[in-house]
Amino acid sequence: MLQRAFALALVLVLAGSVPARAQLRAETSSGRKATTLDALVAYAGFYHLQAVRVRGKLVTDQVGTALLSGQTRLLTVGEAAVAQVEGEVEATGTFIDVGRLQQDDQRVGTYSLVALSQKVLQRDWPGQGELPVLLVSEVKKSEPLTAASVRALALEPARFEGQSVTVSGRFRGRNLFGDQPAAPARSKFDFVIQLADASVWVVGRRPKGPGFDLNVEARVDTGRWLEIQGDLRTAKGLVYIEAISIRTTQAVTDAAPAETVTEVAPPPPAPQVVFSTPTANEIDVPADARVRIQFSRDMTAESFKGNVQAAYDPKEAAERGVPQTQPPPFVANYDQGRRMLELKFSGPFDRFRTVIIRLAPGIVAFDNQPLAPYELRFTVGG
Questions:
Q1: What is the mean predicted confidence (pLDDT) over 100-112?
Q2: DSSP, res 151
């Protein structure tokens, strides 16, 4: 049981280097992200190779030095982690999900990651999500976060959970700049507010009021400043405010803490198809089946337009000596909450035909990372 807990929620903190950054600009999401240990574990793929800031309690036990936050335990090593401070700390660094690295990556040898996997998992190499790692540059004693702000909520949501809070931040639409790893999927009006290196979701109310009506899908509306009053909630590593009132406000100054050295955070991983129905090469598929394709990351809905294609396998028509036909027309809808594209066809497929669904170049995640061209094949039954 202890081994399973370590495998699910383990972060190794190692010596590294970190950047000095100013307040994030509205048009970019490339800066350090203030987040929680729970979020790192839950969304390891999203945070992989990103610069992050987290808080936890630094402790030492029979396994080693670790960061604790709630039920999440995160192993730490390196002089920056163990030699400077004890107790409640704030750590900055670059997050790595070891299972997503190539085994010939220089960092594997530098930080003895194979030995670490053997120690924790009794295997030479972890699977994705089994051994997350934080390459830390700085650990310092954390200052108490007594007043609610976007950063305070992002870093220590447990301190404010269930309380009524009032915070101000920049409107970021429905995660249009990739600030968050996933959406709470409460409604089509869910949106993100951001301040400096931190962000949280807002749910429960449309971003509309006297003198403003913001479109969660339009970047032109981002950069507006809002004051949100509501109750703080957390679920599955996400932090969100159940809004009671929303109004416009003046810009707020709250720069991220200064850092002393330079680091360029690598881009997040490219999106991938993680599941489909019908499955690849499935046979005897019902003629009236809907096609659903799920992705590893939130996608930009508009990028699917003109880039989703359906066809019958042309070789079959040639082999059977029949005219080449096309499948019925379809409507493509992207469900942001489930990260799923659904194709609804206007009629049944031809019997005993192989259907090819292609996702062409041009489809991108919310941070413009491109999806590699993808093809799904399945065969219709009789």
A1: 82
A2: H
Pick the CATH number of 150-248 from 2.70.98.40, 3.10.580.10, 2.40.50.200, 3.90.1150.10: 2.40.50.200
Angle value at C-alpha 367, between 363 and 373, nearest 5 degrees:
25
Residues 229 and 166 sit within 8 Å (Cβ to Cβ): yes
CA distance 161 to 156: 9
CA dist 32 and 51 (Å) reads 5
Burial class (CB in 10 A: 0-12, 13-18, 19+), 287: middle
Q: What is the mean pLDDT of the segment spanning 301-327? A: 91
**356 and 380 in contact (C-beta within 8 Å)?**
no
Average pLDDT, the chain: 84
Tokens of 269: 């991983």
What confidence score (pLDDT) does residue 259 get? 61
- Report whether 323 contacts 353 (CB < 8 A): no
Place 172 in a pLDDT band, splitting at 50, 70 and 90: very high
Rounded average pLDDT over 125-146: 86
Contact 90/151 with Cβ under 8 angstroms? Answer: no
Domain 273-380 has CATH 2.60.40.3710: yes
**For the chain, which residues make up each domain, given as ranges?**
2-141, 150-248, 273-380
* pLDDT above 60 (res 24): no
Two structure tokens written together for 358: 């292609």
The pTM of the whole model exceeds 0.70? no
Contacts 24+ apart (CB under 8 A), 331-337: 332/304, 332/308, 334/299, 334/301, 334/304, 336/174, 336/183, 336/185, 336/298, 336/299, 336/301, 337/183, 337/184, 337/185
The stretch 39-47 carries a mean pLDDT of: 89
- pLDDT, position 45: 84
